[in-house]
Amino acid sequence: MSIGITDEHEELAASLRKWAASLGALDAVRAAEAGPEARFDDVWAAIEEMGVASIAAPESAGGGGGSLLDQAVALEACAYELVPGGLLAAAVGSIVTGEPGRHGVQVHPGGVVWDGGTAGAATPIVGIDLSARHGAATAEAVALDERGRRTAITLAAAEASGVARWCLDTAVEYAKVREQFGKPIGSFQAIKHLCAEMLETAEAITAAAWDAASAADAGDDEQWGFAVDVALATCFSGAVDVAKACIQVLGGIGFTYEHDAHFYLRRAVSLRALVGSADDAAARLTAAAVTGVRRRVDVDLGGLDDAIRPDVRAVAERIAALPQAERRAALVECGYQTPHWPTPYGLAADPVTQVVIDQELGAAGVVRPDLVIAGWAVPTILAHGTDAQRERFVRPSLLGELTWCQLFSEPGSGSDLASLRTKATKVDGGWSLSGQKVWSSVAERADWAICLARTDADVPQHKGITYFLVDMRSAGIDVRPLREITGEALFNEVFLDDVFVPDDCVVAEPGDGWKLARTTLANERVAMASARLGKSVERAVELATAGLGPVESVKVGHAVALATVCGLLGVRTTLRAIGGHGPGAESSVAKLLGVRSRQTSSALVVELQGDAVAGVGSIERDTPGIAADVWEMLNTRCLSIAGGTTQILRNVAGERILGLPR
């Protein structure tokens, strides 16, 4: 997705990208390659006529009077087409010099400037970025201007997003058509994963660039500074990595001068060189986080909440006034436990209503109970079950009277669920299930299970599977705990030996199990997303309060940046839902980056405590201090395995989001 989320910004981006493509920008770059005297006069004349460089300049200074986010959307679109010249510098200049009392500004990080020549003298330079023309200029006692620096980084991040987007799109389109060994190379897992990783990085860049511009427009200097440092720590090395990966996917053709890919790599490298150090930004993020600064992102509902908020607030406050033991029933009764579910178990709430309910419950201090596995089981019953099944299972599950586990995975069928071997044989009044399931959380105490079993071995694998509801107290069920690397036994293996399941516990029709296992309610949950750092990153910041060396401080800052970006992806997903758009790539990428964030940050927390870790013997989840830190580090290893391995999720991202062949 591009920086713009709203319809207006998407239309602006599409229009400008079409306009930029018409300029023949790369032809101009190749024609101007000769030397520093070469110019992009025709392109620049078109830029001036369109007013692209002054979208955010004040109207009093001849600009468009738009927001910095408007300007960022425009620069991203132009960078996608590699529009040459000094567009970034002109845009920054039009903004900072157009402010009242401004006559000029230095935007490159620096300290004292020694007078070493004649002020105003300039020497043109051809740099690594052949689509730009830089110059070395002499100035007298120019002081660093923080607002100008932030503006430059914010808009440069937008360009980095455009570069990354072009590289991703180019690599993916090539991978779809380039054949080797009789198949498109995009069908090979190595290429598919490389493209999926490019998607992850590109989405992170876009989210950080969007947030830096949004924070500037919000007018809070502290928040803007934090967002700019997140962008600086994320966008520019990320764009270089995506450009390198693009050339790798292209192979030999990408290494030729004739292909355009190297121009984008050059632009990415140049941007990274000009904006300042990512590690310095990370160190500043650590320092800010230690003082309590966190990115606060307010979701603007545009007045759509005005009519409903007073009533929602009244209900939330009424629930908050109840004793803790009575709150769950009250949440279920009014539909606030699962507002996205259909009535009478929810409210069939639209995204705005869901967000308002989240906000008001949070403000009132009301925490919804976690439905755990019921959150997966019950939506399937709602969507595909009978009226009797809904009456029997839904409300008791919401109230916590019934708990669930999942019997899907088997010793030989983890990610490859369609190859499961548990058999269901038709008997009088129902089915007899036999087989072995594994990795079943809380199976030892669950009341019911959702279970997939093969009912027809004579049809293709995906068509012979049926979805059952299994009473875990049934005869023939043997639950055995599996001890994990933390020492605990959350998972179990479950043996089914001629377990009887009545016909009224089959969901939908026999053979529909595969379809049901892959579906959720169309009206999916819209959460009130935030940019919270998470448990391990907060713990790393806590350790930083005691003082860290410069290397460790940088590591903590990069963890803060990644965690913040993960939260921003969730915020963008929420905003897209509010705007009436379907889920974009952000939600899938957030899962992948979220796992990376939790695993790397928990490992960092352990690393920061040095040789003391070697002396940790017994580890417990709830023990304060280093023992709990070690437990968390070990426990997070399951995140890239459970619920679909990271590698499988990258396959899914490559195929379903990027459209690569299977």
Automatic annotation (TrEMBL):
Segments forming domain Acyl-CoA oxidase/dehydrogenase middle: 405-499
Cofactor(s) listed: FAD
Name of the molecule in the record: Acyl-CoA dehydrogenase
A GO molecular-function annotation: flavin adenine dinucleotide binding
Residues annotated as domain Acyl-CoA dehydrogenase/oxidase C-terminal: 156-278, 511-658
Family to which the UniProt record says this protein belongs: Belongs to the acyl-CoA dehydrogenase family.
Pfam families linked to this entry: Acyl-CoA_dh_1, Acyl-CoA_dh_M, Acyl-CoA_dh_N
Gene3D superfamilies named in the record: Acyl-CoA dehydrogenase/oxidase, N-terminal domain (1.10.540.10), Butyryl-CoA Dehydrogenase, subunit A, domain 2 (2.40.110.10), Butyryl-CoA Dehydrogenase, subunit A, domain 3 (1.20.140.10)
Species this protein is from: Nocardioides humilatus
Keywords: FAD, Flavoprotein, Oxidoreductase
Coiled coil: none
Record's signal peptide: none
Domain Acyl-CoA dehydrogenase/oxidase N-terminal: 6-96, 306-400
InterPro entries: Acyl-CoA_Oxase/DH_mid-dom, Acyl-CoA_Oxase/DH_mid-dom_sf, AcylCo_DH-like_C, AcylCo_DH/oxidase_C, AcylCoA_DH/ox_N, AcylCoA_DH/ox_N_sf, AcylCoA_DH/oxidase_NM_dom_sf, Mycobact_Acyl-CoA_DH
GO cellular component: plasma membrane
